[in-house]
Structure formats: structure tokens, C-alpha cells
Amino acid sequence: MKRRKARELALQTLFQMDLSEANASDALEHVLEEAEEKQDAFLEAIVTNFVSHKEVIDEQLASNIESWTIDRLGNVDRNILRIALVEINYLEDVPKSVAINEAIEIAKVYGDDDSSKFINAVLSKF
């Protein structure tokens, strides 16, 4: 699986965890089944690191979004930011610039008209 696809499936997994409060393994299994994809190490690394470091990641986000709380962020934007921070903080083989660029590109597809600009503004602080 290409890394872009893994990031998109990670977004779907985190989104599902947010909305339904499903656990990570159930959400990931459901997303893979729906996409007719097999398990992928990069996808699993994103989800696993997010679950392990959720509090730290959310604290980082909260301290870098001006005039907003993390709960006020749209689900898509919040989870794109979370994935980017997992990559920046915990996946050593992903350059920071790549993580930011991928987050912006995914926001253009899955977010609203201003998502990519917002994502870029927040991630430029890291």
C-alpha cells in the first residue's frame, strides 16, 4: 500500500474512533475491510502511535491553535493534524516537510475550502 493511501485510511480510522468511540483495532479492521485492503505497517504505525500518545498530541495541538479549542475543530481537520503530528514526532523515517505536505494535500481532498490553509498554518508552528 502506498503511504498516501495509508494516511487516508488512518484518517478514516481516527475519524471512526472519534465519532463512534470504537477501539483502534475494531476501527482499523472495519476501515480495511471497507477499503478491501490488507494490513499495512505504516498505517498500523500511525494508528498505534496515535493511541499511545493521544494526550501528548492533543496537548500539542491545543497549545498551537489560536482562539480555538481542540474540540471545536472539525473532525477531519483535527484528525489530519493528529496524523501529521504522529509522523513528525514518532515516525523517524518521515521528514517533517513530507508529513506537512501530505497533511495539506489530504486536507484538500477531505476537508472544506479552508482546511488546507488552516492545516498549513498550524503545522508550520512545529
From TrEMBL:
Keywords: RNA-binding, Transcription, Transcription antitermination, Transcription regulation. Residues 4-126 form the NusB/RsmB/TIM44 domain. Pfam families: NusB (PF01029). InterPro entries: NusB-like_sf, NusB_fam, NusB_RsmB_TIM44. It comes from the Bacteria. Belongs to the NusB family. Involved in transcription antitermination. Required for transcription of ribosomal RNA (rRNA) genes. Binds specifically to the boxA antiterminator sequence of the ribosomal RNA (rrn) operons. HAMAP family: NusB (MF_00073). This is Transcription antitermination protein NusB.
